[in-house]
Write a structure and sequence with these properties.
Belongs to the chondroitin N-acetylgalactosaminyltransferase family. GO terms for molecular function: glucuronosyl-N-acetylgalactosaminyl-proteoglycan 4-beta-N-acetylgalactosaminyltransferase activity; glucuronylgalactosylproteoglycan 4-beta-N-acetylgalactosaminyltransferase activity; metal ion binding. Its EC number is 2.4.1.-. This protein starts with a helix and ends in a 5-residue tail after the last helix. Among the domains are: 102 residues, no CATH class; 248 residues, Spore Coat Polysaccharide Biosynthesis Protein SpsA, Chain A. With 591 residues, the chain is α+β, with helices and mostly antiparallel strands. β10, α7 and β11 form a beta-alpha-beta unit. The chain has 16 helices and 17 strands. Helices cover 45% and strands 17% of the residues.
Length: 591
Amino acid sequence: MLHAAMLRRGLLAWVSRVGGALVLLCCSLSLLYVMTCSPPHSDDPPLSHALPRAGPNHPSLGGTGPGIGTGAGGTRGARTYQSGGPPGVQSYQVLLQEREEQHRLHISSLKKQISELKEALQERSQQLKGVQESLKRAAPAEGQEAGAKLQGGGLGEIQGGKSQQADLQDFLRNQLSKAEVTVGIRLPSEYAVVPFESFTLQKVYQLEMGLTRHPEEKPVRKDKRDELVEVLETALHSLNMPSSHQDSGGAAEKTQSNKVYAPSDFIEGITRTEKDKGTLYELTFRGETSHEFRRLVLFRPFGPLMKVKNERVDTAAVLINIIVPLSRRIDKFKQFMQNFREVCVLQDGRVHLTVVYFGKEQMSEVRSTLENTSREVNFKNYTLLQLDEEFSRGRGLDVGARAWKVGNVLLFFCDVDIYFTADFLNTCRLNTQSGKKVFYPVLFSQYNPTLIYGSLEHIPPVEQQLVIKKDTGFWRDFGFGMTCQYRSDFINIGGFDIDIKGWGGEDVHLYRKYLHSNLLVVRAPSRGLFHLWHEKQCGDELPPDQYRMCMQSKAMNEASHGQLGMLFFRHEIEAHLRKQKQQQNSNPKKT
């Protein structure tokens, strides 16, 4: 028995030493890989290291013009110069490109070595499990039971992991087979087509233009830049490695290209995402001759759905403090209070109203409106604050938020020309969490009802106007004034910039503060939040450039593109109708 125990200890000590040596070897190689492959420090954005600007020998890529791939101090992409430079500079450029390719091949070699070491480590782990099994058989009865439990659990985990990995691979292959990659699928109409976006080293050409409204632009979002960098690096790695493919006769052959492909050989690519399957990429590179090209098709399959959270959210005790800054506009305030009484008092019942009024003019009417609402529906949860100073939206919201002294509360920053539903109040509660996330809804902005419905006589009540269609309004994705957030988050982030006077600017300033913080910003269209149309005044005191911008904003809020076109060509339309009527009168229909 003593001899068996000593043998067990000796084997365990030997196995521990071998395992420690393997781990130390893996760590050393990983450190060597990091030290060898890490590029020098650069002030360029991440994309500049992977997508250098096109060289002078490739005019179709933009020549020496600026691109998303090159900046001051780029390291991974060889810096290019204008054609016609000194010969020494061009030779230095060629030398840099050769060094870069050697560097990439060295990286590939290191990756392969690391993969081999991982496989060796797995083999050693299997040997360790075999030693443990032999020790279990030699151990006494009580040791046998404990070892059996340990070993059984380990084998079960290994088998379960292999099964899960096989299931995942089958799922990903199934995603590829279902996606529209090599064979088209039947679509019911042109509206069901998922369009491609095209991209080069410099720009992305897109149909869905987003907030910038640019049909072409450099990839602004970091995730988009990282995506294109990864795709291009994967394509170049595949092109520069020996690969097997089938010729026209179906025979497999091994190919090794004599050309070393670089980012400057990339011509263009197209990509599209099927949201239930994955993202397809097709990249085209210059070949070894002027009429030869290399095309790579890559597919990033989406994995199966994963349950992240399953929780119960109780909003019964979540009070919303709606803060409204106001200066005059008593008619709009009365309209706002009608909506407030119906939605907040009669339907929801968990709302406090804070009105911050600037000045003294019409102050008595505002107070009277609040008191009448209080008497009629027995509503006491409101606060009226008066500031005898120049109107500032940010200042009013800041004062209203800090005036609340009864613990933490959910704030909804609102304007007097906003209409919201009871469903929106619940959306506000569900998309905010103290210390974790804030809600910035995208509201639907209403067009001029007179232009939508033709005349004042045909305009329906406000509740019937709130229809989300392209001819009735638009998503105001450039506005950040309506927001739901907890008072503690608002105070901790620093509140508004109260030096901003009038309307505009303070909301973007606060929005950027949250973007720079660790809080999650929920930005989504809200079907229950509307901006009611009101006439926009562009003062004569504005300089020409600001007056032009004001008029452009006024036109955007006035009507849709098609409606403005009909308004612009109304004289031609009226002339056409008159001619039609004259022709009908001169040529009466035959009975």
